[in-house]
Specification:
It is built from eleven helices and ten strands. By secondary structure, it is an alpha/beta fold. The protein has two domains: 141 residues, Rossmann fold (3-Layer(aba) Sandwich), CATH 3.40.50; 111 residues, 3-Layer(aba) Sandwich (Rossmann fold), CATH 3.40.50. The protein has a six-stranded parallel beta sheet with strand order 4-3-1-2-9-10, sandwiched between helices. The chain has a four-stranded parallel beta sheet with strand order 6-5-7-8. Helix 1 crosses helix 10 and helix 2 crosses helix 3. It is globular and about 55 Å long. The protein binds D-glutamic acid (DGL). The site of D-glutamic acid (DGL) has 18 residues, from helix 3.
Length: 264
Amino acid sequence: MADERPILVFDSGVGGLSVLAEIRKILPRASFAYAADNAGYPYGTKSEAELTARIPAILGRLVERVKPRIVVIACNTASTIALAHVRSALDVPVVGTVPAVKPAALLSKSRVIGVLGTDATVRQPYVDQLVEDHGADCTVLRLGSAALVDMAEAKLRGTAPDPAAVKAEMDKLFSQPQGDQVDAVILSCTHFPLLADEIAAASADGVMLVDSGQGIARRTAYLTQDQLWPETPSGRAIFTRADPDLDRLRPALARLGLDVIEIL
Ligand code: DGL
């Protein structure tokens, strides 16, 4: 018997689509409900208190609505701040997305790495702990960039990012002390893999970009490994606020099999 329950992938905006794309590669038979809390976007400039109150409540409503087999919080900001609260509020398995410090530290030769996330993510004790556990011998430079998040949102709506604007943001990382030695940048916001080409073009040759997408996909596959899948996979995108602007996202959503737009 087929199991129609989708995988629920959650973010503040379109960033989580970078994670959904990786999950889809290894679980091609899965159905997806992609949820974006566009009414709460952006998360990266909000306080811990606000996000801790907001995210479990919205995920609770989403779980009731879509009855997923598993929830993937495809957002570093939400995960580094509210993962424990979400897990205790929901009775489905929850996978979080956190900066890929471990793989970056394994790859870095210069032992100077960059954490490029949102303002909220880069100040989290969760990130300090990841650095202590996996990159203790590295110098870790941090940059929060709300501008890059907005550029990724615009890109998926059809507006190409301005290379000079991307470069101006990246220079805030590379101009920090030892910034010229950075050889691995951790894309610690799920919006940033959507700008990987632009970020690479704004970085010195040889700088590696590392993200968590494939790791999250493998974890999701592992946690669902004995489950059945739908006869015909389906995809829907759910937003927390109606906005005429959402129509501009239809092509990007359709490329990932998300054919229907709903409002929570
Ligand atoms: N995509 C989110 C992340 O991974 C955050 C974007 C936002 O500021 O809302 O952190």
